[in-house]
Design goal:
There is one protein chain. The protein contains 2 helices and 6 strands. It has helices at about 90-100, 105-124; strands at about 10-20, 25-30, 35-40, 50-55, 65-75, 80-85. The protein has one domain (about 10-124): predicted glycosyltransferase like domains (Thrombin, subunit H), CATH 2.40.10. It has a 6-stranded antiparallel β-barrel. β4 and β5 (about 65-75) form a beta hairpin.
């Protein structure tokens, strides 16, 4: 049984990763409201903090989505990242990407609301 709380969507776009000492690119394989998997031959340490940028082409001006996050998992063909911080504009673009690609925007909103409720309960 999966422990994922957010739906993942396949999303084939290039992303740039910046760590304290390196910068490289890879291809996003899947994306959720809380993380993504990047196909790349590069390797960082698990837990290493990164800045992630995804540029969506095909619109003028181009849409840039920025995240702060950490390396969550490393496998043979790439790395999984979990998002820690995201600005409001990037969050809205991400929500729209996930909702559009999952064909169920209500489900995406339910997942987001449930996550917010859980975080608020943990803070009490």
């Amino acid at each position: 049984m999966s422990t994922r709380k957010f739906s993942r969507v396949f999303f084939n776009v290039e992303a740039t990763i910046r760590s304290a000492e390196r910068r490289f690119q890879g291809v996003v394989e899947n994306l959720s409201m809380t993380g993504m998997f990047l196909v790349t031959g590069e390797r960082l340490a698990e837990g290493e903090e990164v800045e992630i940028s995804i540029v969506l082409t095909g619109s003028l001006p181009e849409i840039k989505i920025n995240f702060s996050g950490k390396v969550a998992r490393i496998v043979e063909n790439g790395m999984a990242f979990v998002f820690d911080k995201i600005d409001l504009d990037s969050y809205m673009h991400l929500k729209n990407i996930v909702a559009y690609n999952i064909d169920d925007s209500d489900k995406v909103m339910e997942e987001i609301c449930h996550s917010i409720d859980e975080k608020l309960a943990q803070e009490k």
